[in-house]
Design a protein that fits this description.
Low-confidence stretches: none
Largest sheet: none
Shape: elongated
Mean pLDDT: 92
Number of helices: 2
Radius of gyration: 19 Å
Number of strands: 0
Helix content: over 70%
Order of helices and strands: HH
């Protein structure tokens, strides 16, 4: 009896741009919701929200760069 070795899934990047765009939109929505929450937050909570929003903004920048890369790759293939 031969053991069946699992095969890796093929690299399907056909919808990466769309997935990344969804991630950006979700992150922006979270950022906006956090801004609303800050209106009711205490001093320490506000600082935590500001720090988290800074990380979200950095994430958005990175995702947008990745979208550009994926789009360029899609155009070349």
């Amino acid at each position: 009896m031969t053991k069946h070795q699992p095969q890796p899934n093929p690299d399907d990047r056909s919808d990466n741009v769309e997935k990344l765009q969804d991630m950006v939109q979700n992150t922006i929505a979270n950022l906006e919701a956090a801004h609303e929450t800050m209106k009711f937050a205490s001093g320490e909570e506000k600082e935590q929200i500001k720090a988290k929003n800074a990380r979200r903004e950095e994430s958005i920048r990175g995702l947008r760069e990745e979208i550009k890369d994926e789009y360029r790759d899609r155009q070349q293939h």
